[in-house]
# Entry
Amino acid sequence: MYLEEKFESLQSIYTQLINDIDFDKPSFSIAIYFIIFNPTFWNIVARLEYHTHFLSNFTGSARSGCYTLAGTIFLLGLCRDVYFKKALADQPTSPILDDDMITVTGRFCVIIGQVLVATSMWKLGITGTYLGDYFGILMDEIVTDFPFNVSSNPMYQGSTLTFIGYTLLEGKAAGLLLSFMVYSMYYFALKFEEPFTAMIYAKRDEERANRKKKAT
Ligand SMILES: *[C@@H]1O[C@H](CO)[C@@H](O)[C@H](O)[C@H]1NC(C)=O
Ligand SMILES: *[C@@H]1O[C@H](CO)[C@@H](O)[C@H](O)[C@H]1NC(C)=O
# Structure
């Protein structure tokens, strides 16, 4: 096949997928709302906590503050997942995605995604998973074994993979767009979170070094 023809067939797939999305369904908009709102919310609250300690103060301790935020993020995540599912249920099936190979790929993505999310949560614990560092609850050292040796951010990558997998299982074009939004939000969240977390740990290491100096 000539390159031009390949490009045209790719373009027709793309056009077809877009045509298979029903943008008017309210569940689609609500899913988008949660996808955008959730990471924005937890980043704003975590930064506020870091600078003012308002949650630790309100709940009485850093640990209770972190658990409160963890519970809230978990519930918001549940809402997002429920609406993602509902949004897909309200959409027409895309003929291009209605294929056995795609269903198998989808199942595979969901399994890999869930393994990444579950194992990283297991390794990090609740405070490690849910922004404990902003509350001054730091990990003793960086976790480097599985799943962190196969994925730079298993929580976000696993979550994205799960959404893609579910989309392929259901064969709904709208899910591809929603999954891409999930991916984009995590991408921006990481740009915002990673330097800040690095700063928190750098500060801790500096303090540790100073304490050692004083002790000797
Ligand atoms: C909360 O803030 C008040 C007033 O700033 C302060 O007196 C109190 O010690 C704080 N409580 C905690 C648990 O940090
Ligand atoms: C990742 O670490 C696990 C142990 O936690 C090990 O069994 C596995 O082989 C490692 N994988 C890679 C790709 O290094």
User: Anything to note?
Assistant: Residues 145-146, 149-150 surround 2-acetamido-2-deoxy-beta-D-glucopyranose (ligand 2) (CB under 6 Å). The chain has seven helices and no strands. The chain has a mean pLDDT of 95.
